[in-house]
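Translate sequence into structure tokens.
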Amino acid sequence: MINVIFGDKGSGKTKEITKMANEAAAKDYGDVVFIDKNNRYTLALDRKIRYVDVNDYELRDLRELYGFLSGVIAQNYDIDKIYIDGILDMYIQEEGSVEKFFANLQRLSKDFNVKFYITISGNPNMAPKFLKEYAL
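Result follows.
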């Protein structure tokens, strides 16, 4: 399952996804991972949450992020939820790469029973059809 939280910059998406991650860590049985492009929100997250700053791994595009996520899941089969803040702000995308990334992510979610929660800056009404189906 993939859920996307859309909103303009500064609309509170990061606060919302941080709150969701903290709530999941407090009541769920599986492990929680939070992925971001900086460490600005590490203190806002529960200490049980595995925080990952993707800048530490020099990922260049969504294809490499997908491989990284696959490795994170392979390393820990107890992961239940992965929260990714500002995914499209992290990388320059080639045409079609976002749709392919979400298709691969959906397969990863189904194969390993991991739920993804992702924030994207922008208006959901302007989003491509394939992204609208994931809008929360």
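Note: The helical segments are 13-27, 62-75, 87-90, 97-112, 129-132.
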